[in-house]
Amino acid sequence: MNDMYDDDAGEIADDVNSVDDVQNQVQSQLMIGEECSKNDDPKGALAAFNKAISLDPSCDMAWFNRGVLLEAQQDARGARQAFQICLDVNPNHAPATANLCILLERIGDESGAYEMSTRALDFYPGHPAIMEVRERCSGSKSTKPMEQMAQVVTTDSFKEEDMQEAMSEAGLDDVNAVLEEAVYHDMDENKNLDIDELRSAAEVVAATENIQEKIELVQPVTQSIPQEQDIIVQEDSKVEPTMNTVDLDALVEEATQLIRIGDPASGLKTLKPYLKNEAANHAPSWRIAGGAMARLDLDEHAISALEHAQKLDPSSAKGWFNLGSVKQRLGYLEDAGTCYANALREDPNYIKPAIKWSESSREINDIEGYLTAATVVVTLQPDNPIRMELVITLIELAEGESEVLELASGLPPTIPAGPELAANALALLGEGQSELHARAHSAMNNHVESVTVWKALIQTEKNNPILWRGLSKSLKAAGDIETSERCRMKADTLDQVGAVVENNVAETVEITNPTNQVTETVAPDAPNLEQQNSANELLLTPVERQQEVVAEVESNPQVDLAKAALDVQQNSLVSKQFKNPVSNSIANQDISWYNQGVALIEAGKYSEALSCFDRALPSFANDDEMVIRILNGRGNAFYYLENYPACVESYHQAMLIRPEDVRGKTLYNMGTAYAEMERYQDSIKCFEQAIPRGLNKEEIKRTKDQIRRCNILLKEQIKKQKT
Known about the structure:
Layout: H1 21-38, H2 42-55, H3 60-72, H4 76-89, H5 94-107, H6 110-123, H7 128-137, E1 157-158, H8 160-170, H9 175-181, E2 192-193, H10 195-223, H11 228-237, H12 248-260, H13 264-275, H14 283-295, H15 299-312, H16 317-329, H17 333-346, H18 351-363, H19 367-380, H20 386-399, H21 403-408, H22 418-429, H23 435-443, H24 447-460, H25 465-478, H26 481-508, H27 529-538, H28 542-548, H29 589-602, H30 606-616, H31 624-640, H32 644-657, H33 664-676, H34 680-690, H35 697-722
Helix pairs in contact: 1-2, 1-34, 2-3, 2-10, 3-4, 4-5, 5-6, 6-7, 8-10, 9-10, 10-13, 10-15, 12-13, 12-14, 13-14, 14-15, 15-16, 16-17, 16-18, 17-18, 18-19, 19-20, 20-22, 20-23, 22-23, 23-24, 24-25, 25-26, 26-29, 27-31, 27-32, 27-33, 29-30, 29-31, 30-31, 31-32, 33-34, 34-35
């Protein structure tokens, strides 16, 4: 059971934003279908979209893409059905309205085309083609119901026993429906439907029936939501309840229990007869109805119901959280953040929306939202891993070198000044002496204290050039120019020594490349969660060290530094993902800082390496490729310093820069890391999303094997959690 469940009925939809391995598979199939379409493989694309529909009948994009493909094949009936289901699932799917209005006019349903063109113009105001359809069909009463459109039934041969088995497995009894769908499933085009092709067709038919039943249940409910002016009129009238008023609270409790036992359809049916009249202004009824719709995967309808509930009762913190969760699942992150903020406004001690808000705001680079949410989390849960992430963000913002700044084009005027941010970070850090302490003191203009910390650090690492350079900077700020210069020269001298170490490492680590099978890493003896989190993101960086040491050097197997956590790194699919800068830039001092950081990691000097990467980062603000490499290097350093939250954050920042360019090999390694953490749902998601992103046949085979293993382990994990 998801830990976001609460006993309170108002929070019945709390887990709608949880990672679902089925949704991960659906997204993978959508990406495969899109890749097939780009590669002019409509049959492969249709197969992928059909699979997505079988996995999740409520996936609007799968239905839409199926409609596009069928329309291209001149299958007007199939395309019409697909577009209509897409719109039934998501009434705000703009492209479906445009495609359907044009299709309806073409088949002679001019009345329907006029209505649909009117809807489409809400999304595409003034669009010439849609305007022409609307003008041509205006006033027409010509219609063409779906039933009047010719059905195409396959003439391919098949074994009767195979058909019966496929239908039985899918729970079907309509042979004609399967034969009609089977037209699209003869993948080998041999005019014979084998058992797998019949199963594929039966699964789509079952999915179609499933979603149509849900729509028939849900659509009348959302259509009965009163308009805002109706609510105001009813409130003003103040009608006294009659003696035989329905006990709505009892109905809500009954519906809640049905949803909890996994029967959201029955829960919604319990409330449905009363939502239009008796429960029209009863917020708990609509809140639970919205939760049921979310469980039925009809998210757009769920949002309508939950928004209505919140209009009726804006004081429900759990209602705002539920609404935000559904919106976050759909990718409406800014709106989700507003909902989470509202939840905290109503209940300042409600940590769930604070955690969700910090996640969503970071994804959209909402600095102010992130700082507010993360501060609430740390206040309510001082030991939450977000604490160190917040510390680093505060210091980087104070220094003006945060990755967030580069992405967000400046700080909001409401963000405190640098010294105040650094003071907040120092308060979260507590007592101690570390580079973060020193950096925080510098950002607070407390240079004397910063000098003290740098000196203390140097006492334990006298040959660390980064510490010497940090001391030099603080001394200069404190006004001791002469001593600052001597420290700088000392750092430069140590840099030269480091360059020699770098070359030695490049020559000696080549013999250590092991060849363990990837599949051996799925069921490890897992370290603690933070360590696994860092290992997860670390999979992006091993390659980094392989290429960065010297421009002409072969892949550096010493990148296998995470071997204790992930043997799979030694057989990484991403061994050539990152390339060293071109040789004419190697002499650049900033590249030298970067290469020095790589060398120091190889030498086991992780704190020094971190400082090198920090020193290199500001110089590459306009070079995304180098920023990605440097952030990955930072993550590497944090990993070995056992600062796992910072490690995860650094890699996450690297991925945010070019999310569309994340390669399948990277996702494969991330999936393996999640498996190490025993987070098998996340692991499966990564593996499935890796498949359509550039893997070769052997790598795809290996990845599918990992998915199979993780599914087995996930089932075992769920069993253990239930006992």
